[in-house]
């Protein structure tokens, strides 16, 4: 009996602490059961519906006034970073004393005050594009050179796989050039223009964001006497054309509709029936530059109004195919009612 008493005296604190903890745990369990009834029991508390938060947009829209980035082509080209070191000596075209870079800078200087008068934010970008540049529109202004002195006209080249917004930007500017009475150098856009390094974020660090609608603008040809004289002496003329095109473009834009800023990805398609004609422009009256054989595969880079723009690698060019002449890869190829037109001998429209 004395041994039991001694044991209790020696372990009194432990026994009391253990008993207290069991009491607290028991009381806590009853509290939890009262606060959170078991599944299947009826609770007197009203059921609260949890509303999930709105999903984050894939691309965050810019804020404030419209932001327009203007790049006078070849300006400060010698300051390019090492990834573009081989381009540092490319100061652009020159013909009969008129340099392309001077034309590009003069048009930019005439354009900036017109855009600022709209209340827009204008950024003038040198040849070195800030990595991931974001803007509501990014234009790189250039002047062309050609072996044929009679060749003339403007060109507008969005990047490969342009976003819907980039396509809209190019079309708005094209409409403004046409309304000014300037012809288009149809089919003159080169693979190099579409792959312009300032837009090629998939290849280079110093390039604009793929979510920035961008277009390379070729004002005309320095080798054409009429266009060279006008570009050298009337930069305000070209600035006003670009200004009107941007006004029309922004009139149809809703900044929060960010899905239009995302470049589209097209599946591999197959020429059906008798094959498919590749036209120089999205117009059945333009020249046919290539004939796709039945079953030949091709991947579009853009789509507009029932036409696919496609890239031909051999020879390196781009063209347009009617969407009803292409079918998804791996599907049946129904014959057409009549063979498509054949390619023209000179390949130009």
The largest sheet has its strands arranged as 4-1-5-7-6
Taken in chain order, the helices and strands follow as HHEEEHEEEHHEHHEEEEEEEE
Oligomer: single chain
Second CATH tier, the architecture of the largest domain: 3-Layer(aba) Sandwich
User: By CATH's scheme, which homologous superfamily of the largest domain applies?
Assistant: Zn-dependent exopeptidases
- Name the structural class: alpha+beta
Mean pLDDT over all positions: 85
Largest sheet: 5 strands, mixed
Question: Helix count?
Answer: 7
The total count of strands amounts to 15
How helical, in percent, are the residues? 25-40%
How many domain regions? 3
Compute the separation of the termini in Å: 118 Å
Low-confidence stretches: 38-43, 332-340, 342-349
Strand content: 15-25%
How large, in whole angstroms, is the Cα Rg?
Answer: 33 Å
Characterize the overall form: globular
User: Class of the largest domain, according to the CATH hierarchy?
Assistant: Alpha Beta
Q: Which fold name fills CATH's third level, the topology of the largest domain?
A: Aminopeptidase
């Amino acid at each position: 009996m004395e041994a039991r008493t001694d044991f209790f005296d020696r372990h009194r604190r432990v026994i009391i602490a253990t008993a207290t903890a069991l009491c607290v745990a028991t009381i806590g369990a009853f509290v939890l059961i009262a606060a959170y009834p078991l599944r299947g029991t009826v609770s007197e508390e009203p059921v609260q519906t949890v509303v999930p938060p709105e999903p984050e947009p894939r691309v965050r829209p810019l804020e404030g006034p419209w932001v327009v980035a203007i790049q006078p082509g070849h300006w400060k080209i010698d300051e390019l970073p090492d990834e573009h070191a081989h381009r540092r000596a490319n100061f652009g075209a020159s013909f009969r004393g008129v340099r392309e870079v001077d034309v590009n800078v003069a048009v930019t200087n005439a354009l900036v005050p017109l855009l600022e008068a709209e209340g827009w934010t204008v950024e003038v970008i040198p040849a070195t594009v800030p990595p991931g540049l974001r803007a509501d529109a990014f234009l790189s202004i250039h002047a062309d050179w050609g072996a044929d002195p009679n060749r003339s006209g403007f060109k507008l080249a969005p990047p490969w796989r342009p976003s819907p917004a980039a396509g809209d930007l190019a079309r708005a500017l094209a409409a403004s050039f046409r309304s000014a009475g300037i012809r288009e150098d149809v089919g003159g856009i080169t693979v190099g223009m579409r792959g312009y390094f300032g837009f090629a974020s998939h290849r280079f660090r110093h390039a604009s964001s793929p979510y920035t609608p961008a277009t390379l603008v070729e004002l005309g040809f320095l080798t054409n006497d009429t266009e060279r004289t006008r570009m050298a002496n009337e930069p305000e003329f070209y600035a006003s054309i670009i200004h009107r095109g941007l006004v029309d473009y922004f009139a149809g834009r809703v900044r929060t509709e960010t899905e239009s800023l995302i470049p589209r990805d097209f599946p591999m398609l197959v020429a059906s029936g008798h094959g498919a004609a590749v036209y120089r422009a999205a117009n059945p009256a333009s020249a046919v530059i290539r004939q796709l054989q039945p079953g030949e595969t091709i991947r579009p880079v853009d789509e507009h109004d029932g036409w696919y723009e496609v890239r031909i690698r051999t020879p390196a060019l781009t063209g347009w195919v009617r969407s009803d002449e292409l079918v998804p890869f791996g599907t049946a190829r129904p014959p057409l009612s009549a063979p498509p037109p054949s390619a023209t001998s000179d390949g130009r429209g």
